Amino acid sequence: MYTVIDGKALAQNMRIQLKKDVEAFTAAHGAIGLAVVLVGENPASQVYVRNKIKACEETGILSHAFYLPQDTTQTQLEELITSLAEDKNIHGILVQLPLPKGLDSERALKLIPYEKDVDGFCAENIGKLAMGQETLVACTPYGVMKMLESQNIPLSGKRAVVIGRSNIVGKPMSMLLTNADATVTVCHSKTQNLKEICLQADVVVAAIGRAKFVTADMIKEGAVVIDVGMNRDENGKLCGDVDYENVKEKASYITPVPGGVGPMTITMLMYNAYIAATRSVK
Ligand code: NAP
Question: What is the DSSP string of 156-190?
């Protein structure tokens, strides 16, 4: 019998607690400011930004939205980020990606000080995570860790397989699991014998971007299966990287899509803004 880890419910509970913590911080030190920068009119990015602003409202964080036109120059973007970096009322800065063609995101993101990098993307934060130091952790893998924690799933000494090695999900995920004393294998598109490797895993995290890629024959009986993927199936329906209907029968714990990792990501962003603010007054 498997347990579904309900990311939506967990995210809601976390937001209730976070709202109280944010209120206490605000009473003592003033509002927590999160700057959200959107350049251009990418419809998916507009939805993401709207959801982030809504989450700020829900948790009592003060969002500062900056909507820049499609033809914004690199200099204009960098001037804005530099001013936000210096602004004491801004505790976190996020630049919604992807940026329009012609803008150098790497150069722009480098201007975000690591202590305001609430996405946890910058080299300093990733380096600190690799070294097991205090950092701001990338929101999606951080959310996955909270989901595992919520079920008291033991990780120490367990075999974990992360499928995907992106800088925003796969790599930080593997570091977090390593820091939690799991024995971690990172797989990617060049990995050979993926099925055999997955079959050894007590915990499988799929962050691939391919609909229903992880099938039941790749999963050990009783394994924990975390699905980060967000894809469309052949009928245009939202689905994960895991063939949920078949895999769930073998899993001990599994996350659904939708309602799994997704809702945790924005909650962890709010959490990171709170953490950044508390560190700023230490
Ligand atoms: P990405 O940058 O495209 O990385 C995908 C990874 O999967 C790469 O490392 C790639 O290997 C690997 N891969 C591709 N095909 C493979 C195969 N056949 N076998 C093994 N590995 C394979 O994607 P991402 O940004 O990490 O995102 C992954 C998924 O998570 C996407 O569906 C995305 O939408 C979703 N996502 C969800 C959330 C959320 O909040 N729920 C947040 C972020 C991302 P190579 O490195 O060799 O190319």
Answer: TT-EEEEE---TTTHHHHHHHHHHTT-EEEEE-TT
